[in-house]
Amino acid sequence: MQFVVNGQPRVADVEEDMPLLWVLRDELGVTGVKFGCGVAQCGACTVHVGGVPVRSCQMRAGDVNGDITTIEGLGTPEHLHHVQEAWIEHQVAQCGYCQSGQIMQAAALLTRTSNPSDAEIDAVMSANLCRCGTYPRIRAAVRSAAQKLRGA
Amino acid sequence: MASTGKIARRGFMLGSAALAGGVAFGVYRVQVPYANPLISDLQDNEASFNPWVIVTPQQITLITPHGDKGQGVASAQAMLIAEEMDLDMGQFEIDFGKPDKAYWNRALGEDGAPVLPTDDSFGAEAQRTVFSSLFKMLGMQITGGSSSIPDSFVKLREAGAVARETLKAAAAKQTGIAVDRLSTQSGAVIFPDGTRIPYTELAGTAADIAPVVDVALRTPSEWRLIGKPVQRLDIVAKSTGTLDYGIDVQIAGMKHATVICNPRKGGVMNAFDASAAQQMRGVDAVLEVTGGIAVVADNTWRAMQAAMAVQVDWGPAPYPAEQAQHWAEMEASFTKDRLDKVWRDDGDVDDALSGVDAITAQYRSPYVAHQPLEPLNAVIRVSEDQVDVWTGHQMPRFLQQQVAQITGHDSDQVIFHNQFMGGSFGHRLEFDHIKRCAEIAVNMPGVPIKLTYSREEDFAQDFPRHPGVARAKGVVKDGHVHAIDLHWAAPSIVASQFGRIGMSLPGPDNQIAAGAWNNSYRIPHYRMTGYRVPELAPVSSWRAVGAPSGGFFFDTFLDELIHRAGADPMDERIRLMEHDVSRKVLKEVADMSSWGGDLPDGSARGVAFVESFGVPVAMVVEVSTPNGAIKIDKAWIAADVGTVIDPVNFENLVQGGVVFGLGHAINSEITYSDGMAEQSNYYDGDGLRLYQTPEIFVRGLENGEKICGIGEPPVPVAAPALGNAIFAATGTRLREMPFNKFVDFL
After folding, report:
1. Cα(B709)–Cα(B148) distance, rounded to whole angstroms?
2. CA angle B17, B20, B21 (to 5 degrees)
3. pLDDT of B506
4. What's the whole-number mean pLDDT along residues B457-467?
5. Would you call B373 and A71 a contact, using CB atoms and an 8 Å cutoff?
6. Does any CB of chain B come closer than 8 Å to the CB of residue A38?
7. How confident is the model over A72-102, as pLDDT tens digits?
8. What does the DSSP assignment read for B189-211?
9. Residues of A with Cβ-Cβ distance to B681 under 8 angstroms
């Protein structure tokens, strides 16, 4: 099966029903995307497919219908995405395990609206679980990232 | 090196567990420092001055042996060394190092002593010395009990200072310029003419001279890093998906495995049929492991699919099958023969209670799962003369022993590569997942086996927090709290957890007292008694261990009495508080929240105070009740840790602790039916979500003499603060967690 992951064409010999999460992690070695719950409850596996945020633990490999962007493709330590910049400035992460998914969710939100209300931020980001409880900083970082994007 | 002297002490009972071994050592052996484990790995021209610093011609490496579960302690340990070594953040690599006795925990041992944290008497100090010495002799390298910073604060600055002075001596030797004319800055020795020689260029010379150990530590006014906002070393990697956790480790030739074990924890597997699973794509093997089966495959998902296709007949649970039986056993435990200890007996409680109509209440605290977001995992490769283990763990030397027992190697043949952890909350103090992985790997020599638990398996096998029941009687008099008699019955978490690694607990368990006995209120008559319930389901340390239960029981009952006395909840706590540092914490949170000021219509507040691991913590919660559901609007929290080493990370950890404490108080519990946990994934209790998270205002105070850790102490105060606020708002008194069984939340 053929995929485009972070701009690169990739091939994996997998079943149609293998979740994209496991294609990325175990077949293609893309481990920035995390396994958390396997049932779309935690959002740690959030990636963009065709620009839309999806829970990769719930998307069958055979249903992938667009280019895949993972946290590694959003930005790199050398070339950070605005959302990643904001996450670093606010020192959001504690264990950090959920943050790939949080950042991908936030980036998708800000692509849709560059000026989200607090209620929109709460609604969209509540889909992602953080067991360390970094929510106050996530809120602040999303607001900062929105400002950066509007200024860019 | 100098003694760490009086550092912080917390309430963890590990010292008693260690004591069970009946070990006795002479004073001399206690005082001799352990050899530097780094020396044997050095090449020519590479220097190490102590177990925490390596300087080579290429780079500087700082060893940060406390495991990082998200609390930021890898960064914090490095910062303490860098402070004295005159390194800038980013001028060095960090490494978790290899397991070694040299990394014994100096602070956690002191906490085994059954004395109040506020007790500075000679006798209390003597008891701490006994426990701490035991920890040293046993080489207890453990991350836990919020002890990493107290353990590290002096010794790692000393390690940095020794490195700095030795590098200066090397520069003097190399150039002939007197050492007292040299200074250091940003990873280099600075000469009188301004010339700089980077430390790395001094490695060869430094390797040939004895470390300069007579060093003085800098005063706080000279600190460049400590107490200042510093960017955590892991923050960029954690924001870009480039940090490898244990679950991300990839070794050439690696196979992927999963397990399904008896959900009646500790029960046997009677029979299994793997014929269908063995035919599935990618499956290499289906193996029997202790209490269940393992599937080895070429992909984690294929392994999990195959594991679900195995038909298994499980044996019964070795504990009561139904939750009601667990509660009944606890309620039947307030008896003389189950008395664990009378932890506190101030005044004359019996006299105060006699002949009066006492106020009574009963409280319950449930089993609660750990469930950090990174599922349990490990990678193990077994070779003839070596075993490699890659995972994140809090007890490295115990891990070596546990693996060696399975593979038949010596402990020192087990090479442990510690990894950053995606949370723990106590989960990664346990060994079952490591042992299952070793059992698989020993069957497939030479093949690296990555074991990953499904979330459902992680829930099923989690050893949750110990539950408890408390009964309280109290008296109010003349508008004040007059007497409290608190009885708390619970299974022993220390006995259960350490029993699994062959250690016993001879004395009482202070985690059936934590949060309830260790406060500094001067209530005229106060007694706190712990009762030990025989082990029910196996239990394990959960963030803050006993105090989230004990603090909830004690502070909620105190609040009930204060309301009955007609006193102000804040004023009465401040009035009763005898310990100056603790009183200032209460006053601070009153000030931060403008306690007593006007509130929006329909809003109400509660306050709570709980001490945890030596840290006095006070919190105010403000709630409102739109449409009848509880909405948590704001929280103010103050804590005194003696010295705040990183204000940004401090705030983050306190906010996170509040979220963790509130979330679990509201919606999380583990209950048993047919011997199995009824909760299997996050939809059965996920803690707080972002939309439920209040604004959280944090203040760190530094009035305490001793430095303390902040990873756990913010948790216990959250539940009583919320419950007291809900009472103020609704008149409903919540005496059992989780609260969502009794009131609705937004």
Report:
1. 7
2. 115
3. 76
4. 98
5. no
6. yes
7. 999 999 999 999 999 999 999 999 999 999 9
8. EE-TTS-EEEGGGGHHHHHTS--
9. 37-39, 41
Tell whether B688 is within 8 A of chain A (Cβ): yes
φ, ψ dihedrals at B387, nearest 5°: -125, 125
Q: Searching chain A, which residue's CA lies closest to the CA of residue B257?
A: A26
pLDDT at residue B673 tops 50:
yes
Domain boundaries, chain B: 33-105+141-239, 246-317+376-452, 323-368+464-741
Q: What is the dotted CATH code of the domain comprising B323-368+464-741?
A: 3.30.365.10
The verdict on a CB contact (< 8 Å) between A70 and B691 is no
The per-residue pLDDT for range B596-628, each reduced to its tens digit, is 999 999 999 999 999 999 999 999 999 999 999
pTM of the entire predicted model: 0.95
Please tell me the class of the A75-151 domain. mainly alpha
ipTM value: 0.99
By C-alpha distance, the chain B residue nearest A102 is B239
Architecture of domain B246-317+376-452: 2-Layer Sandwich (3.30)
Percent of the residues in chain B that have a pLDDT greater than 90, as a whole number: 89
**CB atoms A37 and B72 under 8 Å:** no
Write out chain B residues lying below 8 Å of A14, CB-based: 299
Give the pLDDT confidence score for residue B10 in this predicted structure: 32
Residue B117 has what pLDDT?
77
Instruction: Return the CATH fold of A2-73.
Output: Ubiquitin-like (UB roll) (3.10.20)
Share of chain B above pLDDT 70, in %: 96
- Does the beta-carbon distance from A135 to B693 stay under 8 Å? yes
Inter-chain CB proximity B239 and A38 less than 8 Å: no
Give residue B418's Cα distance to chain centre.
Answer: 17
Which residue in B240, B301, B691 is closest to A19 by CB distance?
Answer: B301
pLDDT value for B1: 33
Q: In B, residues 375-394, which contact A (CB 8 Å cutoff)?
A: 375
* β-strand partners of B90: none
Answer yes or no: same fold for B246-317+376-452 and B323-368+464-741. Answer: yes
Residues 92-121, chain A: which have Cβ within 8 Å of B? 92-100, 103, 121
Domain ranges, ordered by start, for chain A: 2-73, 75-151
Q: What is the pLDDT of residues B384-425, one digit of tens each?
A: 999 999 999 999 999 999 999 999 999 999 999 999 999 999
Alpha-carbon distance B690 to nearest alpha carbon in chain A (angstroms): 5
Which chain A residue's Cα is nearest to B711? A132
pLDDT band for B30, please (50, 70, 90 cuts): low
Q: Cα(A140)–Cα(A124) distance, rounded to whole angstroms?
A: 14
Fold of the domain built from segment(s) B33-105+141-239: Aldehyde Oxidoreductase; domain 4 (3.30.365)
